[in-house]
Amino acid sequence: MRLFNKQQLLILAAILLSTGSYAQHPDHTLNPGHTSDITGAPEPYGALPTARQLKWQETEMYCIIHFTPTTFQNKEWGYGDADPAIFNPKKFNALQIVNAAKSGGFKGIVYVAKHHDGFALWPTKTAAYNISESPWKDGKGDMVREFQQAAKQTGMKFGVYCSPWDRNNPAYGTPAYLTIYRNQLQELYTNYGELFMSWHDGANGGDGSYGGKNEKRKVDQSNYYDWLNTWEITRKLQPNASIFSDIGLDVRWVGNEKGIAPETSWSTITLKGNEGKPPMPGFLEDSNLGSGTRGGEQWIPIEGDVSLRPGWFYHAEQDGQVKTVAELFNIYCKSVGHGGALDLGLSPTTEGILHPKDVNTLAEFGKLLKQVFAHNLAKEAKITLSNIRNKQAGSFGAANLTDASRYSYWATDDAVHSAWAQLDFKRPAKFSIVQLRENIKLGQRIDSVTVEVFKNHKWELLAKATSIGANRIIRLPEPQSSAKIRIHVYAPVAIALSEIGLYLEPELKPMSAQNSDVAYSKTNWKASVSTPSAHTQLELKNSIDNNKSTFFETKSSNYIDLDFGKSLTFSAVGYLPGQDGTATGAIEKYELFSSTDGKKWQKIASGEFSNIKANPILQRITLAAKTTARYLRLQNSEDGLLRIAELEVYK
Predict the structure, then answer these.
(1) Could you give the CA distance from residue 95 to residue 99 in angstroms, rounded to a whole number?
(2) Which stretches make up the F5/8 type C domain (predicted)?
(3) β-pairing, 108-114 with 157-162?
């Protein structure tokens, strides 16, 4: 990565000042109604959110929709070689999809206007590979427009994602492509109304068709896209849109595609560059992406992104793997409930609508959220506070804790950094969730909290938490009943707590989705590699032990062989990469062979496991035709570490 010149540094400074996230005290013109304007209010502490970030924090839940020719190819990432003729969804209905999202309690959608395959879902003037070349609506359709209008009709917010990687464009990898990409952003940010999000991700460079050349092109992502100038397009054309990316000008990636933030997840963060470089895509120390930094230099909260299904695109074989309502609620509590937002992936079918299972799950999830948070039990309590700021004025008292306002708050005197709120009920209250909020207009002030209940004539610790921020949900292992509850708050400055909530969630069905695939038993199987040793022989069993937490690893072989002990007839093969959070060793390019005698091998499949490093889920290889064989070989087409948690073979 080259050093920034004077012009680039000026652009960077302008961007950082415009976000407000990179300053200790951002311009109040970006943050109207700042609560420090109230007479006697505490001074703001640390990095503060901008107006656009406050709107994003209030949104809390939105959906990202993946629907391109890739759907019709039954792939996760398109190669850029799909014939536009295959894109013709006969029953496409943007309103059905957006309404389903709204029924789930989501407040916005982000539409993937162009994924890595390069196919633009609007009639762009920048590239021929776009929706006008498809038979859908006789080439006169605009799917971005359809989603934008559906969002407007339903009162949902609208955002877009246009992938910077383009596996079709012949200019990709050259300076000419950057102009094309920026012109695409110009079109999207000019012609589709106000956007609430400008969404980006880190996928870039690799195999592609690139105008029919079928080659591999790599780019320096920290340099090639010239993000400092590219993001200026968003700031100029969509000043209210929050920019999401891995480093995040406004919103940062949580660091996984499970949608779950760590137990401690600060909305403030100090970004660090690798190798001493400034923090930019490609040169980012990502060890604190999920956790953030206590007292960090920037306000950049997390987005937890996860798909409703295992993959981001629709696959019929995953119809039995739609996340359950219980799974979604757990993710909600660990994304929105850890101070961030939940971005749920929706995957329309080839017909252009959501599968009934997806629609039903979203509706049931929305009903659950309404049921859980319909009534705050804390409103029934008499709340006593150990200290109240400017008590005579009455601006910062207990009434602010249950009025459902994010920005009215209980505050303590400047010298009081440890205080408690006690809730007394006429009869024991039964609850399983404690929800807390800070007034984040004054920064993330609270270090930690403890929750206690009065039992057997003494206070007993029930739960504790850190990093409160915009929203903190503490789920208890089981419901509790008590007539006295005390919440003790600790901070380095005066406390500014805006809400206390006590709720009781209903009993939910177990968090497990059923897989429709029927897998063969692995009891008598044997695994082998080209260079066996006593060590590898022992670990080889980990690849077929039905235990996802173990794995087999080798640097000396790029393939693994399975001996079933007898011939099996199978239609698909499953590969699960290591589940320990280490992306290294995950197979990205694969070849699959079968054999009847273990000597003569026949290739039966090849391809790529798209996005496997960010989303290390079970990968399914569906065969073109059923195969009968005793031996199976999974080969990594690229040299390197081979890492396997589990292999499956399906009938």
Answers:
(1) 6
(2) 505-651
(3) parallel
The C-alpha atoms of residue 106 and residue 60 are separated, in whole angstroms, by 8
d(CA 372, CA 354): 26
Give, in words, the CATH class of 526-650.
mainly beta
Tally Cβ neighbours within 10 Å of residue 600. 10
Q: Which residue has the tokens 């780019």?
A: 219
Judge contact between 306 and 27, C-beta under 8 A. Answer: no
Please report, to the nearest 10 degrees, the dihedral formed by the alpha carbons of residues 335, 338, 339, 344 taken in order.
Answer: 0
Centroid of chain to Cα 546:
28
Exposure string (b/e) for 237-266, b if CB count within 10 Å is 16 or more? ebeebbbbbbbbbbbbbbbbbbbbbbeebb
Domain ranges of the chain: 51-372, 377-503, 526-650
Amino acid at 241: A
Strands 108-114 and 61-65: parallel
For residue 137, the model assigns a pLDDT of 97
The per-residue pLDDT for range 536-584, each reduced to its tens digit, is 666 888 889 999 989 888 887 888 899 999 999 999 999 999 888 777 7
Helix, strand or coil for residue 328?
helix
pLDDT in tens, 447-496: 999 999 999 999 999 999 999 999 999 999 999 999 999 999 999 999 99
Residue 506: Cβ within 10 Å count: 8
* Fold equal for 51-372 and 377-503: no
Helix (H) or strand (E) holding 346: strand 341-346
Could you tell me the pTM of the whole model?
Answer: 0.88
Of 140-144, 239-243, 420-424, 611-615, the poorest mean pLDDT is in 611-615
* Bridge partners of residue 302, in order along the sequence: 252
Query: Which band of pLDDT confidence, cut at 50, 70 and 90, is reported for residue 642?
Result: confident
The rounded distance, in Å, linking the Cα atoms of 446 and 442 is 11
Query: CA–CA separation, 10 vs 483, rounded Å?
Result: 59
CA nearest neighbour of 337 among 499, 486, 492, 512? 499
Binned at pLDDT 50, 70 and 90, residue 610 comes out as confident
Alpha carbon distance 549, 543 (integer Å): 10
Superfamily of the domain at 51-372: Glycosidases (3.20.20.80)
Q: What pLDDT, on a 0 to 100 scale, did the predictor assign at position 13?
A: 43
The more confidently predicted of residues 283 and 211 is 211
User: How crowded is the C-beta side of 101, counted as CA atoms within 13 Å?
Assistant: 32
d(CA 639, CA 71) in angstroms, rounded, equals: 30
pLDDT band at 284 (very low <50, low <70, confident <90, very high): confident
Distance CA 572, CA 518 (A): 10
Dist. CA 105–CA 348, nearest whole Å: 19
Query: What pLDDT shows up at residue 27?
Result: 34
Is 352 in contact with 91 (CB distance < 8 Å)? yes
Q: Is 140 left (phi over 0), alpha (psi -120 to 50) or beta?
A: alpha
> Which residues are within 8 A (CB) of 547 and not within 5 positions of it... i.e. 6 or more apart?
646
Q: Examine the pLDDT at 514 and tell me if it is beyond 70.
A: no
DSSP state of 406: S
Q: Residue 6 has what pLDDT? A: 38
Distances (CA, A) of 49 to 439, 469, 555: 11, 11, 47
Q: Which amino acid is at 574?
A: G
Domain spanning 377-503, CATH class: mainly beta
The CA distance from 393 to 400, in Å, is: 13
User: What pLDDT shows up at residue 385?
Assistant: 98
- Residue 58, pLDDT above cutoff 90: yes
